[in-house]
Design brief:
Guanylate Kinase phosphate binding domain, Rossmann fold, 2 domains, five-stranded parallel β-sheet, 48% helix, alpha/beta, four-stranded mixed β-sheet, 209 residues
Length: 209
């Protein structure tokens, strides 16, 4: 029996560095990055099926009715969602999938796909998180405070995840996640079917060979 791929759901507060970590994971491993679908218009430079699957609201609603999203949400009048069929197809092929998603979306995925590996990216400290947001240079003092307060609240959701990885450096965080993947592949509840099939094949060989 072919071993299924693992679904890595990675999220965390703004400024924790989850996007940079996911990019490094993709550069160093043969992971497949799940691409979300959205009904908003493409921004300059965005490419369909690479940044998002850009679809109409009618198509999105039809896919909701067909239960073709692991999770979805409406944000400022536009829909965003994670296509279920694409993810399941890649997992069945044996390839591991990364889903970089916000916390609310991750919790919805957890309800629908409990065998996923849910990893929460933490900053080394709240002060470092604040400095990372400031270094982006895209925040006003008011929006900075709003984003920082939001991040402070989001960290409380860490207990809902399987693992917490502190992003001291991207290299170390990537190593930790790669170690998590190795450990998950060795979990008995994941490989018991493979073990049982191997035992049955061994017994068959002993009886008939």
């Amino acid at each position: 029996m072919k071993e299924k791929g693992l679904l890595l759901v990675i999220s965390g507060p703004s400024g924790a560095g989850k996007g940079t970590i996911c990019k490094a994971l993709l550069d160093n491993n043969e992971f497949w990055l799940s691409v979300s679908a959205t009904t908003r218009q493409p921004r300059e430079g965005e490419i369909d099926s690479k940044n998002y699957f850009f679809i109409t609201k009618d198509e999105f609603k039809q896919r909701i009715e067909k239960d073709d999203f692991l999770e979805y949400a409406e944000v400022y009048g536009n829909y965003y969602g994670t296509p279920k069929s694409n993810v399941l197809k890649v997992l069945e092929s044996g390839k591991d999938v990364i889903l970089e998603i916000d916390i609310q979306g991750a919790l919805k995925v957890k309800e629908a796909f409990r065998e996923g590996i849910f990893i929460f990216i933490l900053p080394p400290s709240m002060e470092e998180l604040k400095q990372r947001i400031i270094r982006r240079g895209s925040e006003t003092p008011e929006s900075l405070m709003t984003r920082f307060k939001s991040a402070y609240k989001e960290i409380n959701y860490v207990s809902k995840y399987s693992y917490a990885v502190v992003n001291d450096t991207v290299e170390e965080a990537v190593k930790k996640i790669e170690s998590i993947v190795v450990a998950e592949r060795c979990r008995v509840d994941r490989i018991k079917d493979t073990i049982l099939n191997s035992k049955e094949e061994s017994i068959h060989e002993q009886l008939y060979d």
